[in-house]
Amino acid sequence: MISLYKNLFYQSLRIRMVEEKIIEIYPSDKIQSPVHLSIGQEAVAVGICNNLLKTDLLYSSYRSHAYYLAKGANLNKMFAELYGKVTGCGKGKAGSMHLAEKSVGFMGSSAVVASTISHAVGSALASKRLNKNQVCVATFGDGASEEGSYHESLNFASVFKLPVLFVCENNGLAIHSTIDQRHSYKIHEHAKSYNLKSTYIEEGYDFMKINSLISETINEIKLTGLPQVVEIKTYRYKEHVGIGDDHHVPYRSSKDFDNWKSVDPLIQDKTLINEFSEKINAEIEAAVNFAEQSEFPADSELFTDIY
Amino acid sequence: MANLTLLQAINSALREEMRRDERVIVLGEDVGKNGGVFRATEGLFDEFGAERSVDTPLSESGIIGMSIGMAMYGLRPVPEIQFMDFIYPAFDQIVSEAAKMRYRSGGQYTVPMVIRTPYGGGIRGGHYHSQSAEAYFAHTPGLKVVIPSNPYDAKGLLISAIRDEDPVIFMEPKRLYRSLKGEVPETDYTVPIGKASITRAGKDISVFAYGAMIPICLEAAKKAEEHDIDVEVVDLRSLVPLDIKTIINSVKKTGRAVVVYEAPKTGGFGAEIAAIIAEKAIEYLEGPVLRVAGLDTPFPYTFEHIYMPDSRRVFEAIEKVINF
Questions:
Q1: Which residue of A has its CA nearest to B67?
Q2: Domain shared by B159 and B85, yes or no
Q3: B216 in a structural domain
């Protein structure tokens, strides 16, 4: 049996290689949707989703390729969606920022920051009312914690005692603004003022550590039915939107980047990279091929799925 | 049949639907124990308990966002926004999330949610207890906008809205909550969304309106009758979807039209009606299409009587079009 480490490594590497493929394809303009890449942050999605059942529901943000894949949604349908093809998870209407796959409980993602957090809370209320032993997860960035919607959601979840896991992926950046320019508070500390448990983990590259913390947290949520916040420090390798590296722009230091890369298993563990690359590549090639071969939606689709 | 106020008809619709379908939940500020600011949800807490008649924090965005999550999960939430003037903190959730969820998920999710909200002036509520914000929502594909003008329609339309798969903005004319009564079946029935109703048939001129403007238009029609003008009053009942066929047929019959709405005139929904008439029936027109509307000011407190369309202003517009 494959070890937990290998399993999580494989999932994380798969996400990274998928996004590297997107980078490769992007200049061809076959993917016209703006893309917000998760490279550097894969371990967070994998560490969370490894502890979720298909019936547990996850709501995410526009930087959600990693979550879509980690939650078990179909890679062919993802590439098809990026290509705007009718075989995509959103019939080619959603694009990169709005992936959703109901069959695996990936409830969706929105380009409007923090807007899906309260949906997770509502789903948790519904789930509690129907006595399902389910966890609803909201994932969002540190920027989202500046939105009113985030605070309303924490308050609602705490007042109504709902089984919600709030995960803040703190990459320290809101586009180009650093966290010290924006925050008068520490996310995990401030969350406690809503009378809920919150934890913090600094090693956002370490899927083992994240997996173990989330496993514990989800067990507690299922046991108590109460919400919790987890803040995970992570690092965005690429620019906010697009495929480029922007460390030449003087808003963050390439020293931090080098430090992060020096501990990133997806860079350092060459043995496993070699072991898995071929298999993952084959899967990706097949998915790209699927997207290439698929049709664009008919013009009449413009008017469907509105009412 | 029972003789009910519009408010009682709303309450009856909620009760019937909550009895029929346990997925239906009402929620909002003070809607539970206290029965709502206007008492629209009175008694629901006692019958259905705190789980289905939910008092929430004072967070409009949270109320609507949570309702969206419930609806995506499979419940039928009916959130109340206490006054339509307070809906703006939830604007993003309504127009960016609820309205677009079905489209952006390629049809995987629908948001069967009804946002009930009292709207409109005439109660000296001032800036933030009086507005009529239908145009913002009618401008957003993915939402339905429904506005009843009488107790029978209020119950039948609300039941239809709750059974609808898509988000509905259900605007309740608070000025009419208790001011008129009507016969309402005690059992459940529906009034279809998207069908206008000809409240008063006439042959000389069509007056298009909705909600609290209907009684005013009827009053103006009565006055016009004294001047031998036979007015047709069409109650649109729903702005989205809009019953274009009934509007155009009425204009073809009368050849004249006035549109009445209490929101500020500029960019109001009445402009849409006028444009549709121009596009589809201009060859039938014997005069200009006039708008009688609120004024392009913040909703005023002291000057409310000047701001609000009344039967005199409606009658003057009718006369002007007739004499064109």
A1: A122
A2: yes
A3: yes
Active site residue B127: no
What is the nearest CA distance from A117 to chain B, expressed in angstroms? Answer: 8
User: Which residue in the set A88, A93, A118 is minimally distant from B65, CB to CB?
Assistant: A118
Nearest to A234 by CA among A204, A211, A266: A204
For the stretch B152-204, pLDDT in tens is 999 999 999 999 999 999 999 999 999 999 999 998 999 999 999 999 999 99
- Average pLDDT for residues A188-216, to the nearest whole number? 98
Containing structural domain, residue B67: 2-184
In chain A, the domains with their CATH numbers are: 4-173+186-289 (3.40.50.970)
Indicate whether B21 and B129 sit together in one domain: yes
Last residue of a domain, one of B184, B217, B234: B184
The sign one gets for the Cα dihedral A246, A252, A257, A260 is negative
Predicted TM-score (pTM) of the model is: 0.96
One domain, residues B212 and B132? no
Nearest residue of B to residue A301 by CA position?
A: B106
Buried b (16+ CB within 10 A) or exposed e, B266-299: eebbbbbbbebbeeebeeebeeebbbbbbbeeeb
User: Is the ipTM of this structure higher than 0.90?
Assistant: yes
- Single-letter residue type at B61: S
Closest chain B CA to residue A159: B57
In a domain, B267, yes or no: yes
> Considering only CB atoms, which chain A residues are within 8 Å of B102?
305-307
Q: Is the same domain home to B167 and B203? A: no
Min distance A207 CA to chain B CA atoms (Å): 29
Q: Which pLDDT value is given to residue B57?
A: 97
| Token output for A103 | 């069959």
A217 vs A139, B244, B250, CA distance in Å? 15, 55, 64
Q: Does B323 touch chain A (CB under 8 A)?
A: no
Q: Kindly report the CATH number assigned to the domain that includes residue B243.
A: 3.40.50.920
- State the catalytic residue, choosing from B129, B139, B227, B305: B129
Q: Are residues B154 and B205 in the same domain?
A: no
A-chain residue closest to B57, CA distance: A156
Distance from CA of A234 to the nearest CA of B (A): 27
Q: Which residues of A touch B59 (CB under 8 A)?
A: 152, 155-156
> Domain check: are B32 and B96 in the same one?
yes
Q: Do B20 and B124 share a domain, yes or no?
A: yes
Does residue B192 sit within a domain?
A: no
Q: How far is CA A71 from the centre of its chain?
A: 9
> What residue type is B224 in one-letter code?
A
The whole-number pLDDT of residue A133 equals 87
- Rounded to a whole number, what is the distance in Å from the CA of A14 to chain B's nearest CA? 24
Who among A89, A126, A129 is closest to B106 (CB)? A89
CA A263 → CA A20, A235, B48, B219, distances in Å? 19, 12, 56, 78
CB contact, 8 Å: B105 with chain A? yes
**Residue B300: both structure tokens together:** 């005023």
Same-domain pairing of B6 and B96? yes
Q: Which of B25, B57, B142 sits opposite A159 (nearest CB)?
A: B57
CB pairs under 8 A between A and B: 135
Please check whether residue B249 touches A, CB under 8 A: no
Q: Does B220 reside within a domain? A: yes
Contact at CB, A149 and B74, closer than 8 angstroms: no
Number of domain units in chain B: 2
Nearest to A305 among B89, B92, B103 (CB): B103
Specify the DSSP element, H or E, that contains A306.
none
Rounded to whole angstroms, how far apart are CA atoms A181 and B40?
46
